[in-house]
């Protein structure tokens, strides 16, 4: 039987979602917990792969087991998971359902704090010494809708068949001292959101113009774009099916 789990995690202590040698990952912790409770060996498939230090407010994953599971098993899983990983729900799905390939869109937030605050050091990028022109950053973000090839914002030497993505939302929102970039697309390339944010920050600081931003996208060259911003401010917020 195939089960989908909905979960959240704080990525500070993990080297990303995916299991890897000599590094602790979210996928590894979940797999161990599910194996322990079900007494079976499962293969856990996530809706995506977040990088080291990136958080998830909503993530989905699926696995197959012989044992019938109920909502009460959610509490059993959580009882042995680390406190920074929480399974929210469990649901049986069709055997053909797939957590990654069936997802039609994913949304991320990048959170910037414009003041110093010791309580948000692990979940925001604190950029208090720079003045940003948010209106011009939003104008630059709108340019993203005009393109599909985002190789300029992709990690180099990544194994993908295409750099095309359809972005349906890209906007900056200021609430108090927190500036948040919201972005939704059908798929994302490795490091894409952090590279876009880094480049938009340069627009907001007046280092590059709107015309420059357009040329960066059209160049399809990662070295032309801005720096990748720190992982700690990035959240996967929604996966839609």
Structure report:
This protein has 241 residues and is α+β, with helices and mostly antiparallel strands. It has 2 domains: 2-93, Pseudouridine synthase I, catalytic domain, N-terminal subdomain (Alpha-Beta Plaits, 2-Layer Sandwich); 105-240, Pseudouridine synthase I, catalytic domain, C-terminal subdomain (Alpha-Beta Plaits, 2-Layer Sandwich), CATH 3.30.70. The chain is 23% helix and 27% strand. It contains 5 helices and 9 strands, in the order E-H-E-E-H-E-E-E-H-E-E-H-H-E. Strands 1, 2, 3, 4, 5, 6, 7, 8 and 9 form a 9-stranded mixed sheet that branches. A hairpin with an 8-residue loop joins strand 2 and strand 3 (55-64). Helix 3 (134-143) packs across helix 4 (192-204). The longest helix is centred in the N-terminal third of the chain and has 13 residues, at 26-38. The radius of gyration is 19 Å and the shape is globular.
What's the short version?
The chain is α+β, with helices and mostly antiparallel strands. It has 5 helices and 9 strands; from the N terminus they run βαββαβββαββααβ.
Q: Say which CATH homologous superfamily of the largest domain is assigned.
A: Pseudouridine synthase I, catalytic domain, C-terminal subdomain
Determine Rg (CA atoms, Å): 19 Å
Structural class: alpha+beta
CATH class of the largest domain: Alpha Beta
Main pleated-sheet profile = 9 strands, mixed
Compute the number of structural domains.
Answer: 2
Strand content: 25-35%
- Percent helix: 10-25%
* C-alpha end-to-end distance: 20 Å
Q: Architecture of the largest domain, CATH level 2? A: 2-Layer Sandwich
Strand count: 9
Please trace the helix and strand order, writing H or E for each element: EHEEHEEEHEEHHE
Averaged pLDDT: 96
Query: How many H/I helices?
Result: 5
CATH topology of the largest domain: Alpha-Beta Plaits
Low-confidence stretches: none
């Amino acid at each position: 039987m195939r089960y989908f789990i909905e979960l959240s995690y704080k990525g500070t202590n993990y080297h990303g979602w995916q299991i890897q040698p000599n590094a602790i990952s979210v996928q590894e912790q979940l797999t161990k917990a599910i194996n322990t409770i079900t007494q079976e060996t499962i293969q856990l498939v996530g809706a995506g792969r977040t990088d080291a230090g990136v958080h998830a407010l909503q993530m989905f994953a699926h696995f197959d087991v012989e044992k019938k599971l109920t909502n009460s098993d959610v509490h059993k899983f959580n009882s042995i998971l680390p406190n920074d990983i929480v399974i929210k729900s469990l649901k049986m799905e069709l055997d053909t359902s797939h957590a990654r390939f069936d997802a039609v869109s994913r949304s991320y937030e990048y959170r910037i704090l414009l003041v110093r605050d010791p309580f948000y050091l692990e979940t925001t990028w604190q950029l208090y010494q720079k003045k940003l022109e948010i209106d011009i950053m939003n104008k630059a973000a709108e340019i993203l809708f005009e393109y599909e090839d985002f190789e300029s914002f992709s990690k180099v030497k990544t194994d993908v068949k295409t750099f095309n993505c359809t972005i349906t939302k890209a906007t900056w929102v200021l609430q108090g001292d927190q500036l948040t970039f919201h972005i939704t697309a059908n798929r994302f390339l490795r490091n894409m959101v952090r590279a876009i944010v880094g480049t938009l920050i340069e627009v907001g600081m007046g280092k590059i113009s709107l015309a420059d931003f357009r040329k960066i996208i059209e160049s399809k060259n990662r070295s032309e774009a801005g720096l990748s911003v720190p992982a700690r401010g990035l959240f996967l917020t929604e996966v839609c099916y």
